[in-house]
Design brief:
This protein is mainly α and about 300 residues long. The protein has one domain (about 5-300). Helix content is about 70%, strand content about 0%. α4 packs antiparallel against α7 and α8 (about 185-210) runs antiparallel to α12. The longest helix is centred in the middle third of the chain and has 28 residues, at about 185-210. The radius of gyration is 19 Å and the shape is globular.
Length: about 300
């Protein structure tokens, strides 16, 4: 077994983005409890991180497999996919997906038990169902005849699961209740995560169009998809600032704006771009900026 190929298929560079929502939701949730315990020593936090990483790796494996089955990797100019390159067979990737699902479900069950114990059976069932839904969503993104990543609904999936569910769900694991203000940073993370997907689809829009992968960029067209990209980043900043206004305690809370400097530079780069392939380097910048935003926003809104 070529371990390096599976590591490549796992696409480790996507992992920081996937845990951004967990970081914000957990930091704010732990702060709401008003305990002296550090979030970094919380088993609940780390189990949530591991569960999310499991979902993301599963999604990346499924994406590699699904794009191969649909022929979407033909004439691909970006990073090589492991199934289409022959380094992992379709059968091996299916086995990897099954193993990843089992491991992730095991971690998720531990997370649910640590969060709710045996006293909150209803909550346990709810989060178990959400876990199963997340697994199905991760696989159905590109796998199957009704793969929604091929019909322009990938943006909705990313917004809901990377943003709303990730932030609000992790917050609830700590607090056992929902403060509706938490949906403001949840929306911000969801929009920024969607911006990463949109940037990926901007880069690949011609190949996707040729391979009948009808992403939102393909449906909107390159020019309108650029404007959509600007909206995602600007709207994320606005929702984060609204949360800050409602919970303002110190001017230092504004330090999170540092993370938006590269994001607004990205808007300028996208606006000037005429060669989509050159957007590849921007993906990492936007993903890491979102990760930085999550850390700064989470920390700065809990130490004051």
């Amino acid at each position: 077994m070529d371990v390096k190929s599976y590591i490549k298929a796992a696409r480790l560079r996507t992992l920081p983005l996937s845990v951004s929502g967990i970081i914000i939701g957990s930091f704010l949730g732990n702060h709401q409890l008003k305990t002296a315990d550090s979030i970094l020593t919380s088993s609940l936090f780390w189990l949530a991180i591991l569960t999310t990483i499991g979902f993301q790796v599963l999604s990346n494996f499924a994406n590699d497999y699904g794009d191969f089955k649909k022929g979407a990797d033909k004439n691909r100019t970006g990073e090589a996919r492991m199934v289409s390159s022959g380094k992992i067979t379709p059968k091996q990737m299916k086995i990897a997906m099954i193993i990843t699902t089992i491991i992730t479900l095991t971690i998720a069950l531990n997370l649910i038990y640590v969060a709710f114990g045996s006293d909150n059976f209803g909550y346990s069932i709810l989060f178990f169902v959400l876990g199963i839904t997340s697994i199905i969503a991760a696989i159905k993104y590109t796998v199957g005849n009704s793969a929604y990543g091929y019909s322009g609904f990938g943006d909705v999936f990313v917004f809901l699961f990377f943003g709303l569910l990730s932030v609000a769900g992790s917050y609830f694991l700590f607090t056992k209740n929902i403060n509706f203000q938490i949906f403001l940073p949840a929306i911000a993370v969801g929009l920024l995560s969607t911006a990463v997907l949109n940037l990926n689809n901007l880069r690949d829009h011609q190949e996707d169009k040729n391979n009948n992968k009808n992403t939102l960029v393909v449906k909107l067209g390159f020019s309108k998809a650029k404007k959509y990209h600007y909206f995602l980043i600007i709207a994320a900043l606005i929702t984060a600032l609204v949360y800050l206004m409602l919970n303002f305690k110190s001017i230092y809370q504004l330090v999170f704006l540092i993370a938006f400097i590269p994001l607004f530079k990205n808007i300028i780069t996208v606006s000037k771009n005429t060669i989509p392939a050159k957007l590849d380097g921007e993906l990492k910048k936007v993903a890491l900026s979102t990760f930085l935003f999550a850390i700064l926003f989470g920390v700065l809104n809990t130490i004051f």
